[in-house]
Amino acid sequence: MPHLYPEPEAPWDLLAKHLAGEASASEQEELHRWLTAVPQRLRLLTDATRAWERGGHVAEVFTEADADRAWQRFSAAAGLKTTPADAPKPVVAGSEARVVPLWSHAQSWMRVAAAVLLLVGFWAVARNFLGARQAAPVTVAAGNQRQLTSLPDGSRVWLNRNSTLSYAADFNDARRVVQLKGEAFFEVKKDHGRPFTVLANDTRTQVLGTSFNVRAYAAEDSVEVAVVTGRVAFSPDRHKVAVQDSVLLTPGLRGVIRRSAPAVAVQRKITDPNFRAWQQDELVFDNQSLSQVTQTLTRYYGTSVALSRPELANCRFTGTFHQAELPQVLRVVSLSANLSVTQSAQGGYTLDGPGCPSL
Fold first, then answer.
1. Which of 31, 158, 222, 314 would be a feasible disulfide site paired with 14, CB 3.0-4.6 Å?
2. Which domains, ranges and CATH numbers included, belong to the chain?
3. Verdict on whether the full-model pTM lies above 0.70
């Protein structure tokens, strides 16, 4: 993670003058340019302002020893190296501490920075600076097995095989944003003040509290979101895609964004009753064509299942399988449709034979 405000560049003196209401117009403009150059720097100003307001009465002067001690604490925590010229002079016992005006132009930027830290609270100002160095994103990876994980806000996420979920270490403190590679089913805890956002393959899914499925495998040409409860806003990621099209999805609807241009969100009805089969460990077929059955089996088991002749696709099948292996499912399907099953050297399966009586 990049340093948001490296220590030599942070205008602590301008920040202190701004908080005290003593900055000139040109100084305000300089501080504004520095803050807006990197959007994340605005959090520094927010934290400092809140801490300043909580502090109540503000002392007008600080001793040099006070400033030195504050800077020593800050530099040690931030891992900064101080040169001999920067090192504070020892305070002799019994000597009278010299009073240093806060805005003396003779002070170096480090002494003014120390005074700012005293005024607004050490961790209130340094939290983002230090956090940018130390906080690493959290990553949850599902290998060959489905995995259930709980997020810091209480939301639950089921990850499909070969899927990865990542989020910032401060997920529950600021924004609720996760990044997904693969497929996941989300049960999001409601928080009206903080929307929940899923970023996946240049798409953005935003909700307040709901349950929905996101499928975004890199090898596939589309991203799909299917809603079970609540409402979902589904759109291309505005930071990566120029077209700003979005759809509002409610229960029973799914959104599709194809990766080929133009990347627009399309709203459709959920027609596949097994879109959550990977999460529920159950396949349900209700008078579905063998074409739909073989597509679902291929997707669910990750193994090719095909029909030897196009006309076999018109045969229909009804049945339910709970935690069943693919060979077991194919035996039942083939028997009901008057077909036989063969397996290729590559591991895929083919259904062949006379087929249903209507053929």
1. 31
2. 12-134 (no CATH), 138-269 (2.60.120.1440), 281-352 (3.55.50.30)
3. no
